[in-house]
Design goal:
Helices cover about 35% and strands about 10% of the residues. It has about 400 residues and is an alpha/beta fold. The strands form 2 sheets. It has a 9-stranded parallel beta sheet. The chain has a two-stranded antiparallel ribbon with strand order 1-2. Helix 9 links the parallel strand 10 and strand 11.
Length: about 400
């Protein structure tokens, strides 16, 4: 491997390439994680449990849902037998619930790695003081991180966060120091504020500043990783120890093969439309198997536009693919695609997924900005659907 790049050390794991799939609600379920992991492993010789070809994190789950034994929450923490290590992201705003949830994960062997969410900008999360709002209350943030680390046993705990609430309330440097002090295995920074959401460009300079501030644990960069070359450039410009990929892999599980190839100087991975169609079919089939019904095809519909982005496919066929109801119908429609179409150059560095045009005000609990040293969780913050 190039001298400039080393495996990412997360607890007992030496992750190569140093890449993490970010948890995304309704996206990073077992079938999608399997495709991404398979793509990464296709370019990595002899990956092993202790030397995984990336970390692939399941959808975020709430600590209160886990503690209260919510069936839907438990169902979300599902991993295939060959999925190692098993990574789960937890969301919580109460140190007591966080400690109990982490203890459940550790004692019941539900996962091998725990990530804590302090980056979500969604209003129903931030209005309860969660996500990107929480690090502003630094004492509460410290108490939550401490509770997680102390109850995790041998499991590594990592933290994912944003630059801050908005440009006037940046929190990432202090939060990074606190997280390191409390014994986390790594911190990941999405280089946008909560107010930015997914708009504009990620400010990679913030990742470099965090890396300069923290020396004892790995720092991962997140934001605007659309292809393998972006990961190399981010790490070169910031000194980051690895990258976290979110929207860039929507409809593009092969991005993880592209990333793996980039780290060893290989050729970029650019599938033609036939290969994309085959991946679409496997993804839909995996969802059908997971749901044990045609509901899996209906869930797959939202992925169609992401998979076909940039390819000159007619609007009528696109629309029918996005309305398929079962695998037989999907197969018939996929067969109509021109499988010889090459990868479109317009897709290079092309943003994907949700976004909005400009910054928005972050919804916060009443009086949230008045006392950053208040250690008290907001009243009514912990509900079983509070994580989004």
């Amino acid at each position: 491997m190039p001298v400039a790049h080393q495996p990412l050390a997360i607890g007992p794991y030496r992750v190569w390439p140093p890449v993490v799939l970010a948890p995304m609600a309704g996206i990073t379920n077992p079938p999608f994680r399997a495709l991404c992991r398979e793509q990464a492993e296709s370019r990595v010789p002899e990956p092993a449990a202790e030397r995984p070809a990336g970390l692939f994190v399941c959808e975020m789950v709430t600590t209160v849902g886990l503690v209260e034994r919510n069936p839907k929450t438990r169902k979300m923490i599902h991993f295939e037998p060959n999925e190692q290590p098993r990574s789960v992201q937890l969301y919580g705003v109460d140190p007591d619930y966080v400690s109990r949830a982490v203890r459940i994960v550790a004692e019941e062997d539900l996962a091998d790695h725990i990530d804590l969410n302090f980056g979500c900008p969604v209003p129903k999360v931030t209005r309860r003081g969660g996500g990107c709002a929480l690090p502003y209350h630094r004492v509460l943030f410290r108490n939550i991180v401490r509770a997680a680390v102390r109850n995790a046993g041998a499991l590594p705990v990592t933290v994912k966060m944003r630059v801050g609430i908005d440009p006037q309330h940046e929190t990432y440097l202090e939060a990074g120091r606190i997280a390191e002090d409390e014994g986390v295995a790594a911190v990941a920074l999405h280089a946008r504020t909560g107010a930015q959401g997914y708009s504009g460009e990620a400010d990679w300079d913030r990742i470099a500043k965090l890396k300069a501030e923290i020396s004892g644990i790995p720092v991962l960069g997140n934001g605007d990783i659309w292809e393998g070359a972006d990961a190399l450039r981010m790490m070169a410009e910031t000194g980051a120890d690895g990258v976290v990929v979110g929207r860039g892999c929507l409809g593009r599980p092969w991005l993880f093969a592209d990333l793996a190839a980039a780290f060893v100087g290989g050729e970029p991975v650019r599938p033609d439309l036939g290969q994309v169609a085959a991946m679409m079919r496997r993804h839909a089939q995996g969802l059908v198997a997971m749901h044990r019904s045609d509901h899996g095809v209906r869930e797959f519909r939202k992925h169609v536009a992401w998979y076909l982005k940039g390819f000159p496919v007619g609007s009528e066929l696109r629309g029918k693919l996005a309305q398929a109801s079962n695998l037989a119908e999907l197969d018939e429609l996929l067969a109509r695609l021109d499988h010889t179409q090459p990868w479109p150059q317009a897709n290079e560095g092309s943003p994907r997924g949700r976004s909005h045009a400009s910054e928005r005000r972050v919804t916060l609990p009443y009086g949230w900005l008045e006392n950053p040293d208040d250690p008290t969780p907001p009243t009514g913050a912990e509900t079983e659907d509070s994580g989004g």
